[in-house]
Amino acid sequence: PTYSQNAVPVNYELSSNYPNPFNPTTQIKFGLPEAQFVQLTVFDITGREVARLVEGSFGAGYHTVTFDASALASGVYLYRIVAGSFVESRKMILMK
Question: What's the pLDDT score for residue 64?
C-alpha cells in the first residue's frame, strides 16, 4: 500500500515492521478505515507482554509507531494490534 498523508485504507492493516531484523529500533505501520481505539502490544515468544506501544484513539488513515527495544534481549518478538474487532499479529526479530 501507498502511505500518502491523506490516504484512508479500505480495510484495517498491520504492516510488517521495518527494518526487520532490527537493532534497536523499528517502525510499525498500521492503517484504520475509520477512527478507532487501538492497542498495539509487543510480546516475547512465550507470550509475556514486554511493551505496550499504543493505547488510545486514532483517526482514520495510516499511522507509524517507533518501537525501541534497547532494554530487550535478542530474539523473536510478536506484535499485536487490536482495533475494534480487528486483531492481527506479526513477528519481528531483534538482533543485537
Answer: 97
